[in-house]
Amino acid sequence: MPGSTLIRAPAPDPNKSIIENVLELTPLGSIGPDIFTNTRELWHPPGARGVYGGAVIAQCLSAAQQTIPPPSASNDHAVFLIHSMHCYFVLAGDSTIPILYHVERVRDGKSFVTRTVQARQQGRCIFTTTLSFVKEGSAGEKTIDHAWDLPADALAKLNEGTGEEKSYGDTDAEALGVQGSGPLLTRRLGIVNTISSGLSFASTTCGDSHPNVRDATARIHLEILNVQTWKRRETVLPSSGNQEIRLG
After folding, report:
1. If we measure between CA atoms, which residue out of 2, 23, 5 comes closest to residue 98?
2. What is the pLDDT of residues 207-228, one digit of tens each?
3. What's the DSSP call for residue 221?
4. pTM of the model as a whole
5. How far is 80 from 67, CA to CA, in rounded Å?
6. % of the chain with per-residue pLDDT over 70
7. Closest Cα to residue 83, out of 131, 147, 125?
8. Residue 31 and residue 43: Cα distance in Å, rounded?
9. What b/e string do you get for 59-85 counting C-beta neighbours within 10 Å, with b at 16 or more?
10. pLDDT band at 206 (very low <50, low <70, confident <90, very high)
């Protein structure tokens, strides 16, 4: 089985945060210019088709940022910040195979810098993105801010949630549905709002285990998703006897 990294991963850097160590990239100048690979093994969330997509997005952004020209006299000491990023997931990534990030320098302008990045495994593109970086302060004296003010209790709730995750020990993590370690955790949540009152009535009458109830539930949900306006619909559910149950 191929290794999950091309180069043996070094020890975590204590001067970096956990997430910085997890998402660290290694340049592959010996292979070609502007090519990078994941320094550490990739995370495959439990039950997912492939590697965690958020990590691939973050590493593409990191690879692109490493090709941005640094502030210098030739560009008036300009600092370029990420402006927009358009992402496309093409294939599920394999956590046992290293990812190569190929950066293309599309354009270096005075106000904008454009890059495209392809994440490849075994020569196949699994993810592609186009990024635009904007010169800091290039919007002029007057700017329009669209962000809303942060709610007063938002930080308190965030700190409370972070504290709860940090308190999860080896003994209670599984009971709470938490999986993973470090900065990447998954938590199982219950499914809510999946059965309407009409379907609850059908389940009570026919029994939750009746196959026709399950099939009708999926059919009604698909109908609701496919219509643009709400309509009164009639759905016939065969009961365990000879009578029919009508919803609608």
Report:
1. 5
2. 444 454 445 444 544 444 444 4
3. H
4. 0.62
5. 11
6. 61
7. 131
8. 25
9. bbbbbbbebbeeeeeeeeebebeeeeb
10. very low
Sign of the Cα torsion 154, 158, 163, 164 reads positive
The pLDDT tens digits for 169-204 are: 445 555 555 555 555 566 665 555 555 444 444 444
With CA atoms as reference, report the closest residue to 63 among 23, 108, 96, 19: 23
Structure tokens at 48: 């997912």
Q: What are the residues facing 121 on neighbouring strands?
A: 124
Q: How far is CA 18 from CA 23, 29, 95, in A?
A: 9, 26, 19
Residues in the chain: 248
Question: C-alpha distances in angstroms, 182 versus 19, 82, 102, 133, 207?
Answer: 8, 26, 27, 30, 44
Give the gyration radius of the chain's Cα atoms: 25
Rounded to an integer, what is the distance from CA 18 to the centroid of its chain?
18
Hey, what are 90's tokens? 């093409």
